[in-house]
Design brief:
Layout lengths: L11 E5 L6 E3 L5 H7 L17 E6 L2 E3 L9 H5 L2 E3 L3 E3 L3 E4 L13 E12 L4 E12 L6 E6 L3 E8 L9 E9 L5 H5 L9 E8 L11 E6 L3 H13 L6 E7 L8 H10 L4 E7 L11 E2 L6 H4 L5 E6 L1 H13 L7 E5 L15
Parallel strand pairs: 1-7, 14-15, 14-18, 15-16, 16-17, 18-19
Antiparallel strand pairs: 1-2, 3-5, 3-7, 4-6, 8-9, 8-13, 9-12, 10-11, 10-13
Length: 356
């Protein structure tokens, strides 16, 4: 029988070791996209080559790499043939080995749908809340994100976390927090009035940032628009009648960068266990009227964290890297630390992540 797989510009087979059936890449999509479309719970997070969550070992075949992976993968991993699935398009049929596929990860159909920006609200001087009404329902888990593009305005999709807990039967309305970044085409466009009532394309869900089952303390850290997935995660936990103790440290520069404080006060009042919410300002003027905590979020790890805690972090890479280094001082296990780095054009040459 004549096979069209493996032709130069045609579809390519991708065999993931340990997965019974091969999947198919259309010749233009990455290994990760093809796997997610096939319903495989492939580990992923940023989708722009900035986190390394989707790394896999190329056992046979050839791929086209969209970005340089040497700054994410170690020299040993590169020598062993590791690649980033989110940045690798098969040039031939390929076989890959994935070190770990999380059987408990969220599994929802990957949906691409149109939508309309039906509300825009300023949360701070540089963060807006966008409400998008979708043409068809989209199911996701709290902590996940979607790829959003604006036909005719921003063709390259940007990734934004859902800022609300999901509905049981899928959402026809989703909410994102978008922070303006220097030279961010999408993030600055949505700050203006032109965004309201504009059509967008939403694809998702993506990501493996979700609340794992446990009875231990939830220790959360967020900075900037990283508040979105943490809010969704905690709202969902409240809906599920979670009774785990929570410490949530929200890092910002000054008082003008704080937002949703009343929302978290309400969440704390409804929580079924101890809930400590700590806003921390790193650059607040010394002579201001701020009576709360000052400094860096890392200063509150030793004071507040339970040795058996699960740690959930969302925000800019420097904040997360510093927090991980601090956690390592106390011998926290890697499998108890979960994070989502919010990348923009200053962090990677690839398309903006979350903050774009």
């Amino acid at each position: 029988m004549l096979s069209f797989f493996g032709l130069k510009n045609g579809p390519k087979q991708v065999q993931i070791e340990g997965v019974d059936a091969a999947i198919v890449s259309d010749g233009k999509e990455t290994i990760l996209t093809a796997a997610l479309k096939a319903g495989i719970r492939y580990p992923n997070n940023c989708r722009v080559g900035g986190c390394g969550a989707c790394k896999c070992q190329l056992k046979s075949g050839k791929v086209k790499e969209l970005t340089e992976s040497a700054y994410i993968l170690t020299a040993e991993e590169l020598k062993a043939g590791y690649i980033l699935a989110c940045q690798s398009i098969p040039k031939t049929d390929v076989v890959v080995h994935v070190d770990h596929i999380d059987a408990g990860a969220p599994s929802h159909p990957l949906v691409t749908t149109g939508g309309t920006i039906t509300a825009r609200r300023a949360l701070t001087h540089d963060i807006v809340e966008l409400t998008v009404t979708l043409d068809e329902p989209l199911r996701y888990s709290a902590g996940q994100f979607a790829a959003v593009s604006v036909p005719g305005v921003v063709e390259q999709a940007r990734s934004y976390s859902f800022a609300r807990a999901p509905s049981a039967n899928g959402n026809t309305e989703v909410v994102f927090y978008v922070r303006a970044v220097p030279n961010g085409v999408m993030s600055n466009w949505v700050q203006g009035d032109a965004a309201l009532n504009h059509r967008v394309v939403v694809e998702g869900p993506y990501g493996e940032f979700y609340l794992r089952e446990s009875g231990s303390q939830i220790y959360a850290i967020a900075g900037g628009s990283g508040l979105a997935p943490v809010r969704a995660l905690l709202e969902q936990a409240l809906n599920d009648k979670c009774n785990r103790p929570v410490v949530f440290v929200f890092g910002a520069r000054t008082q003008k960068d704080l937002y949703c404080l009343d929302d978290f006060a309400s969440l704390r009042a409804k929580w079924n266990a101890d809930f400590t919410f700590i806003p921390v300002l790193s650059h607040e003027p010394e002579d201001s009227d701020w009576k709360g905590e000052r400094g860096l979020v890392t200063q509150f790890i030793e004071k507040r964290i339970d040795p058996q805690a699960q740690v959930y972090m969302c925000g800019p890479p420097p904040m997360i890297d510093a927090a991980i280094a601090e956690l390592e001082r106390f011998s926290f296990r890697a499998n108890d630390i979960f994070f989502d780095k919010f990348l923009d054009q200053s962090h990677t040459a690839a398309p903006e992540k979350k903050a774009g």
